[in-house]
TrEMBL record:
The keyword Magnesium does not apply. InterPro entries: DUF4013. The chain crosses the membrane at residues 22-45, 75-100, 120-153, 174-193, 199-219. Keywords: Membrane, Transmembrane, Transmembrane helix. It comes from Methanobacterium paludis (strain DSM 25820 / JCM 18151 / SWAN1). The keyword Transmembrane applies. This is DUF4013 domain-containing protein.
């Protein structure tokens, strides 16, 4: 299955059962209660597993404890993969705060050191840190997608998301070019969805509800389906 087929099938897939899309949307709406967000992540992971198993219908909302556990596992994988970026961002925020505090102190006490120089030292470091963390997240995201798919393929075994040699071997079988093309297409679709939700946001309350209840769950199911097909292509290409 080429990238065009992966994308077209994945776009159609969520519309096979709008009720389940809306149920997922409800979980997103009440995600401030904490547990529902893990259930939502668990269901998206379930979509990934079902797609890898070759099922054409959206999976049922059942086995809630398993969904919760899977959602927590996915969250842990996110944290581990994004941890370097998170740490760099924290350092950047601290640098910005320190430069502001130092500038305020110099204004109060007076100093021979130029405020612009001090702000440039810490502010420049912070800006560099933010840029580095953004680049890291941009690069690691598709790798993490394959890692989570590998976890799904291995029946939810979390260690499978960190078998880096296995994951990079799978990416080689998929093809780095295909992975990059798929990723670019998803980014473009994300931009379109962002514009759409921005337009819906103009409509008070109703626009926000439609975005969270329909658009956001739809795009997440689409994403899980496309990751599953991309992962499966590794085995097709190796034959």
């Amino acid at each position: 299955m080429d990238i065009g087929e992966i994308v077209s099938d994945s776009i159609r897939y969520p519309s096979s059962d709008w009720t389940k899309v809306i149920i997922l949307g409800i979980l997103f709406i009440i995600s401030f209660l904490i547990i529902p967000i893990f259930l939502a992540l668990g269901y998206i992971f379930k979509v990934l597993k079902a797609s890898l198993a070759g099922l054409e219908e959206l999976p049922e909302f059942n086995e809630w404890i398993d969904m919760l556990v899977d959602g927590i596992k996915v969250f842990v994988v996110y944290i581990v993969y994004f941890l370097p970026a998170i740490l760099i961002m924290i350092f950047s925020v601290i640098s910005i705060w320190y430069s502001i505090m130092s500038f305020a102190a110099m204004q109060t006490v007076g100093t021979m050191m130029s405020p612009e120089l001090l702000f440039g030292m810490f502010g420049g470091t912070a800006l560099a840190g933010i840029i580095i963390s953004m680049i890291y997240m941009l690069v690691i995201t598709p790798v993490m997608a394959i890692a989570i798919a590998n976890m799904a393929y291995n029946d939810g075994e979390i260690n499978a998301a960190f078998r880096f040699s296995e994951i990079f071997e799978l990416i080689s079988q998929i093809g780095w070019v295909d992975l990059i093309i798929w990723y670019i297409v998803l980014i473009l679709i994300g931009v379109v969805v962002g514009v759409l939700t921005g337009i819906l946001g103009i409509i008070p309350v109703i626009g926000w509800i439609i975005s969270i209840l329909v658009v956001y769950p739809y795009i997440n199911i689409f994403y899980a389906r496309s990751v599953a097909w991309l992962y499966a292509s590794a085995f097709e290409n190796s034959e």
